[in-house]
């Protein structure tokens, strides 16, 4: 830690503050949507966030249907993005926004990544759902069809374009961001799996997942499992109020997970804009990967697929010099659930683990009796209960537990 860095600052201890923003949108009104997104980006910057993620196709709204092929809408989205990028000058928070974007003769469902007035890269959606209520293939092409790996946009030349991009903070080596879009996560092998093996620690998803009964639980399972498998933070942000309800409904579901654990979640069905922040522990995540040797084995197994990934460097300019305390709440007793029902399940599990261990040990040693000293404290009482249960499992009388009372002084 440098002499000009505050000890009481989360960025100096391996944490980063990330956010997702769910604005109220207007269908096919890019100027309005950019204004709403800009206000939320400013809030994220004021709260010292390193990253903020917006919903899929947020500048146009997801539910534009055949309007996506209208030139005025595409031009409006381009101008809206230019306005947002320009407004981000002096704002170190990295932003990820969604928009329809024409590249060559094809239209892509894209995420634009920008910071400090500079467009860092554009990520097209890889997997386009075309089943049940979805028909994205009618409007968009998969990012896998793109010819060329750069694009000219917002007055910048050679902007990185593609789904295999890692955004690496040069002044914060643990902050490596990947972007995927909605359906990409729902596939058997999401792009973020390869991104994690390529080094990404923060996985993001711009989504427009409509709501059906029970779908919110399935989303949580997806995000929890992916963040756990990848040993990464996962920031998920879905479209909310303002999208057309002609055919679908939208609950504005956002969440942040860290290695399988929920850290933050939005209020679903909100009728107002939301900005939800949380701190994630990148140092812990990289330690987990180092200790789990099979993560490294997976990297080696997929080395050929990972060779094509590109790194886009940027300067995060994290505010390290002043106190910035964690807002994330940690359990006072991390191994003892606060919920009584969960606590009962956990205690029963601990008890059964001990019983199984003792049963196997008695069988292996050919013993039918157990000798235990009982002080009257919690530990020996628990051990006595385990011994009694072990005799039940072995079909032996509990009299075979020889318990000797061993009072202490005082």
Total number of helices: 9
| Proportion in β-strands | 25-35%
By CATH, the architecture of the largest domain is named 4-Layer Sandwich
Mean pLDDT: 96
Q: Describe the largest sheet.
A: 7 strands, mixed
Gross morphology is: elongated
Distance between the termini: 49 Å
Runs in which pLDDT lies below 50 for 5 or more consecutive residues are none
Extended strand count: 17
Q: Which CATH class of the largest domain applies here? A: Alpha Beta
- Write out the strand line-up for the largest beta sheet, numbering strands in chain order: 13-12-11-10-9-8-15
Task: Write the topology of this structure.
Blueprint: E1 15-22, H1 30-46, E2 51-53, H2 71-87, E3 94-103, E4 106-115, E5 118-124, E6 150-153, E7 156-160, E8 165-169, E9 176-181, H3 191-197, E10 202-207, H4 215-230, E11 233-238, E12 254-258, E13 261-265, E14 274-281, H5 282-291, H6 293-301, H7 303-306, E15 310-314, H8 340-365, E16 370-374, H9 378-394, E17 401-405
Parallel strand pairs: 1-2, 2-3, 8-15, 9-10, 10-11, 16-17
Antiparallel strand pairs: 1-14, 3-4, 4-5, 6-7, 8-9, 11-12, 12-13
Helix pairs in contact: 1-2, 8-9
Short description:
The chain has 410 residues and is an alpha/beta fold. 30% of the residues lie in helices and 25% in strands.
Fold and architecture overview:
A hairpin with a 2-residue loop joins β6 and β7. α8 (340-365) packs across α9 (378-394). The strands form four sheets. A seven-stranded mixed beta sheet has the order 13-12-11-10-9-8-15, with helices on one face. It has a six-stranded mixed beta sheet with strand order 5-4-3-2-1-14. It has 410 residues and is of the alpha/beta class. It is elongated and about 85 Å long. The protein has helices at residues 30-46, 71-87, 191-197, 215-230, 282-291, 293-301, 303-306, 340-365, 378-394, and strands at 15-22, 51-53, 94-103, 106-115, 118-124, 150-153, 156-160, 165-169, 176-181, 202-207, 233-238, 254-258, 261-265, 274-281, 310-314, 370-374, 401-405. 30% of the residues lie in helices and 25% in strands. The longest helix is centred in the C-terminal third of the chain and has 26 residues, at 340-365.
